[in-house]
Amino acid sequence: MQCDPPDHGRIEIRKIWTTTELNDYLDFPYVGQAFLIERHFIEKKTGKESRELAYGITSQTPEQADPQRILAINRSHWCIENSCHYILDWIYDEDRCRIRTGYGPENITRLRRFAIGVIKSKGVRNVAQKMRELTRNVRLVFDYLRMTKNSCASASKI
Q1: What is the four-CA torsion angle of 104, 107, 113, 118, rounded to 10 degrees?
Q2: Helices and strands (H and E) in the chain: how many
Q3: Of all residues in the chain, what percent are helix, strand and coil, respectively (each to 5)?
Q4: Which of 29-33, 83-87, 149-153 has the lowest mean pLDDT?
Q5: N or C terminus: fewer CB in 10 A for the chain?
Q6: Inter-residue contact 13 to 24 (CB < 8 Å)
């Protein structure tokens, strides 16, 4: 069981159960174990409680990952996933994007994630702020990425 400090106005308690008993029944290559995560939420203001169950499988065996490790991996996956979606939603307003056909949605998302990755690789803590600074100023983007001969000296100021 894992209990995190209060976050976003709620307390979350997570419990995990793991098993290898299902491995022979699952049609999944390289299955190591199955797991069930129960999340119990308590809203701090209202006291309202809710529960959520999540089932999963992993290729990691019990020797490679005990229940606490699987819980930590699952938790960190969602932290990364949520932070990326948050940035895509707030910077690019991706939920209202009108690109809907062919490979367009996948391609534009890949480009957006690439841009976010480039900015994060430079050690920027606030991606949204940096995007606002670089928006509609191609010269600033080239300087930031050090893509021109004379941008190396001025890029350290950005």
Answers
A1: -130
A2: 5, 4
A3: 40, 20, 35
A4: 149-153
A5: N
A6: no
CB 108 within 8 A of CB 99: yes
Higher pLDDT, 1 or 93: 93
User: Helix, strand, or coil here: 124?
Assistant: coil
Question: Which residue type is seen at 2?
Answer: Q
Task: Tell whether the model's pLDDT for residue 27 goes beyond 80.
Answer: yes
The answer to whether the CB of 60 falls within 8 A of the CB of 41 is: no
DSSP state of 25: T
SS3 27: coil
Q: Is a pLDDT exceeding 60 seen at residue 58? A: yes
DSSP 8-state symbol, 42: E
What global pTM score does this model have?
0.53
Q: Which two tokens stand for residue 153?
A: 């000296």
**What are the two backbone dihedrals, phi and then psi, of residue 12, each rounded to the nearest 5 degrees?**
-125, 130
57-64 CB contacts, 8 Å cutoff, 24+ apart = 57/26, 57/28, 57/31, 57/32, 57/33, 58/31, 58/32, 58/33, 59/30, 59/31, 59/32, 60/32, 60/33, 61/20, 61/32, 61/33, 62/18, 62/20, 62/32, 62/33, 64/32
Local structure of 138: helix, strand or coil: helix
Looking at residue 32, its pLDDT comes to 95
